[in-house]
């Protein structure tokens, strides 16, 4: 039985904010013709956060010892997305490093904006839920104490607040564990990919990541069997990895790309039509870019509609609780 090192059971990925700032600074320095060793040395001193500075210091040390850039990123794989070392390796092989850094900078800027948009949509329902779990019990306690002409007890107020905040603390702890423990993270990725309510909301974003990876592969000039093999190896979604298994052999057998992707059921029929047209006209790079942008908009639309529904339910529930508990 193969033993897994303890280091590989733990992952501490850089937040989207740090990745955005890192690649933005990397793009600016790389455009000025600065070599990678000096880029990481500068970022180790002037990075946006302490974690970025420490990570860049280790990368600079790896490159100074003779490692290639993708090897250095592979050694720091717990801090970076799973697909990044493979992309860097392809860019080093094809001489498209400058273009890759520009595309990664634009991608992580877009992902950061997407993350902020989702957080903005979720902030109001969370505030309403916090008011229901904490504010209403406190208000009832204050009104009961006033009606009975009794003094307010500090320990009772603290107990009510802690009882209301405990579910949020437990939820945050579970989120933190699922994000940093690699086995739990894989379980979460599998659950999010299953058909159902969660899969319905995460499907556009999973399609967006796959389309962006294929867009990158098309731009670097990889053959499509190699591109699908790369997408299967680097996909975080276990269902995507399973669906893409065997697709390079289908392409080598002469089956068109649109028909191969149709058998995987990873894209809908409108997106497959765009891939078919892009294959006929030689514009698959642009086709996958448009599919990624389209999936992003669909995902935001679904999240926005779900949040509106949740807000309505929360407000109605809050009104019922006030009417039943305070009148």
What is this structure's SSE topology?
Blueprint lengths: L5 H4 L6 H16 L4 H11 L3 H15 L4 H7 L8 H11 L2 H51 L6 H27 L1 H12 L3 H24 L3 H11 L3 H7 L2 H6 L4 H8 L4 H13 L2 H43 L1
Helix pairs in contact: 2-3, 2-7, 3-4, 4-5, 5-6, 7-8, 7-16, 8-9, 10-11, 10-16, 11-12, 14-15, 15-16
Explain what this protein looks like in three dimensions.
With 327 residues, the chain is mainly alpha-helical. It has 2 domains: 6-80, no CATH class; 107-128 and 177-327, Receptor-associated Protein (Up-down Bundle), CATH 1.20.81. Helix content is 81%, strand content 0%. The protein is built from 16 helices and no strands. The chain has helices at residues 6-9, 16-31, 36-46, 50-64, 69-75, 84-94, 97-147, 154-180, 182-193, 197-220, 224-234, 238-244, 247-252, 257-264, 269-281, 284-326. Helix 10 crosses helix 11 (224-234) and helix 14 (257-264) packs antiparallel against helix 15. Mean pLDDT is 80; it is low at 1-6.
